[in-house]
Amino acid sequence: MTTGLVSPKRCADSHGDRHNDGLKLHDLSLATRSGVRGVKASEWLIAQSLHQELKTHELQPPELQPNTLVELPGSRLLMALSTREFWLLEPETEAQASPIPSGHCAPGVWPLYNQNSHAWLVLSGEPRAEMMAKLCGVDLRIEAFPVGTVAQTQMALASVVIAHHLWRDEAVFSLFVDQSLADFAWEALQDAMEEFNSVQ
Amino acid sequence: MTPPRLEHPFGQLIDRDAPVTFEFEGETVQGYEGDNVASALIGQGRWLISRSFKYHRPRGPLSLAGHDANTLIQTPTAANRLAEDLPALEQGAVSGQNYWGSLKTDYYAVLDRLGRFMPVGFYYRAFFKPRGVWRFWEKVIRNAAGLGVANLEVAPRYTDKQYLFCDVAIIGAGPAGLNAALTAAAGGAEVLLIDEQVRLGGALTYHRFTLEDDIRAQTLEALSNAVANHDKIRVLTDATCNAWFSDHYLPVFQGDRLYKVRATTCVLATGSSEQPVVFRNNDLPGVILCSALERLLMHHGVCPGGSAVILAGNDNAYLTAITATEAGLPIAAVVDLRPAPDDPTLIAALNERSIALYPNATVYEAHSDKSGLQLGAVTIHSIKSQGHVDAPILRVECQLLAMSAGYMPAYQLACHGGAKLAYHDDKSEFTLTQLPAGMLIAGSVNSVHNFNAVCADGRNAGRGALRALSLQTDSDETVYCEDKVNHPWPIFKHPKGREFVDFDEDLQIKDIINSARLGYRDIQLVKRYSTVGMGPSQGRHSALTTARLIANATERTVTETGVTTARPPVKPESLGVLAGRRFHPIRKTPMDERHRSLGAHMIPAGSWRRPAFYGEPQNRAACIAAEAQAVRTGVGMIDVSTLGGIELRGPDAAEFMNRVYTYGFLKQPVGKTRYAVLTNEQGVIIDDGVAARLADDHFYVTATTTGAAQVYSEMLRWNAQWRLDLDIAQVTSAFSAINVAGPFSRDVLEQAGCDIDLSAQGFPYLACREGLVAGIPARLMRVGFVGELGFELHVPSLLAQSLWDRLMSAGEPFNIKPFGVEAQRLLRLEKGHIIIGQDTDGMSHPGEIGLTWAINRKKPFFVGRRSVDILMSQPLKRQLVGFTLSPAAPKPEEGHLVLRDGDIVGTVTSCEYSPTLDKIIGLAYVHPADTQPGSQVTIRTAQGVCVQAPIATLPFYDPDTTRQQL
Description:
heterodimer; A: Gyrase A, domain 2; five-stranded antiparallel β-sheet; 5 helices; 11 strands; B: Ubiquitin-like (UB roll); FAD/NAD(P)-binding domain; 7 domains; seven-stranded mixed β-sheet; six-stranded mixed β-sheet; elongated
């Protein structure tokens, strides 16, 4: 804990990631994430270095439809929650304690506090959609929810953003829940995983 | 000794190598794995399983499909379970229910002889005078008509829910459903196939469709294997689809799980319910449906003892007789309600097997054996005209009567979607019409009965589903079915009655007809008056007969008469499964673990858990007093992360603040905080907080713990109208907060390390700053909710626990003490600060609670301004004031009444004993004439004890407000 950052997931009964042959649950709450939003957020992204990276994907931010995400070089992901809200996810980068962003990035573009507002849980494994169907009413099967899509919905009565993406060459669901509900979400997920013979 | 069973191909569901035992009525019953309780009992020659609802008549299985209420039994954990739905393997001790004495000797059975005095609706008419007498009779009647006993000691099972998504949901895995599934899957659709039986196949598993029975087994195997091996078909067996809701939302129950199925389209291949013939004593144990006999033989290998009579209203019953003969069951006679079977070869088939045939005849009466508990014989009469018979032909001794008067489509799911039933006189059957969009039906629910036609109809439904999904498919096959399977009038009234139309409710022919005679002509009224169709079987076996009887009695057609509305659920369902897992999202602050390790007593605060105080509950008062004392004389700190946080950023942020809150915010200096009060459009105070201006275009506003979501929502709603240029962000979870309060709070922060000038001049009361505390980036506000020098530190949530730890360490030299909500409430009460929601209600406006100073009358608008003006121009009806009492006085509680001349004029909203002041202090709404300090108000405390409380000047503590401005 050299950074002083403490993950909001602190379930007393967990001793690390839960896993079995089919499902794994990881806590990435201490990985880096940031974001911007505002009426000019899209234009601002274009002006940033992300511009070139997005071009390599033949995507311009305006083309990044809400509820989608794209991979960027350096194991990063750009997620669009609306036409004016974007999250940059860096699952392989440890977060650092940094000053509270207060001013705007540019007129009409405001930084987000998603590093602290949301816990980041990652669910991997083949039966992840079937397991999530115990907690969430959105069809998360690969046909309906392919890699690169995002759902803003509820999981076990708690609001959640679910992103389907590749991580370490494996398709996973990233689950962003309010940090105050991280323990609840973790326990609800663990309970739902039990029937898939989850073991520690 | 395990009971003998028939050899293969009979008994397909049982494992003859796995005997099982259970207890029924205290006696050991043996069966095999795969048996249900009912089949195991019949396998041992026991037909009596339960007692009827009203007359306590002996009852045994009727359908053996879980579609009737004749086999309701009591298990150790639940009442009203159907014996034919309960696997014998899982049972411990079960018993019949609804009897007084024993199942065999039920003293309540005397009611059967008193039936003439208990016509339908007798209790409506008999027990309403004198007034109140129903309360007495209700208990007697409910006891006599009881339906088992709920075991309240049973620990709830783990139940849960799961969504399932598919392109096509097919309900029913009989020949139609299997063909529909294969066709739809072959066309590329994701198929979910649902069936309530444990095995795929539906009627294919027990019913021979031809005399030779040369296609059933191979067809079943081929279809089942194809379905099982198809990767686009998911199968749910032993699962009941209990309703159809809009957009093909289907609740499917399987064991302890409720599947919430979301389908794009659905196919109902739910089959049909075989109908009983209505004659005297048609409810005796041993009188069953033909399909029930086939299930007994083919599924469980049970060949009932004695001989049997088959009562046929269609050709299918002949096939039942052939199957029974092959199983070795002696058939004493086939009695056909018709002059002859449609297929003349069936007569020859009976002749070959030396089975006597009595055409144009009926069983007019069933007789019990010597025990009075089971069928012993039937009397056969020839039919003279519709519903009337000639003299008896003969009496046949038999222990089993299997009957089939026809079929009623399993219409419930279709009717949930708005489908209608139309009666066809030429076939004497109902058919479904006006199906909702995207719903298809196939097989006998579609009034198609011929085997080949059923299969083709299923394939057509699969094609229809593909079309609904815009997938390619070939053209439909021609479906042709002229089979007549329903007898037009299988109803034979007997002078002595006891011809049961509705087995669940013990309703006879006369009960239905009398309902019409009493003026209840509409079928819905007949249902409500007579209760027909209101039992667990929901009219499966009574709707058709009732429609015919009422149509006849009211001289209308059956179509005009119709059937009663089918509503969910199709079958009884347990509340536990409906509830599923209990999700209670409980929010924790980053310091939650620290609070628990410090021995905090946690209490709910909205969806959060907060420390009430630190220590043992039995020392509550002392703990709170010590915590308060620490804040007053030393330093304390409290986790206030549950406070709502909202960020308003943008050029119009100040304008927005000015419109939303009552105070003026346009000129609020950067680096300053202001108390922010929010009223709704009715002028009622709904929230408050502190607004910190961090920059010209940046406000950080707190809200109450429970009001934050509403405030945020209201802000979004207003700006959807105003279209001001700002961003509104809910940051409650992004920031966590700690309030350090007390004379040494500044010292603690300095000890922790802070790059802000914390002096009274550099950081005065009501100022806000941004900087580093213990190396952690923080927003600091000098606020004084508890009335002492204090600093509220708002930090990124991931760093909050670290800050807590560092402040605790830094505070050690000053004996810092964490304090909880209870001490905070006491301290703020001493200071006279109100809590919105506790000291206000849904009527409180600023004038009533002394917040006129927080209203800016000079600005043109704020939300609720017009209402506030109107309310405050009116004479006050009550006012919130402070009162005190001596420590020895009865302590008022929140909610206790304030009286004036015997009338209620207000309530106590807050009241505590203050160790600092050694007084009881409180806030209460009182009459406006009693608000002057020194006035006395009457408070009615516990047990009606009234106390005279003098009004006090607020605040109770530090009236000059010097301590918080240090």
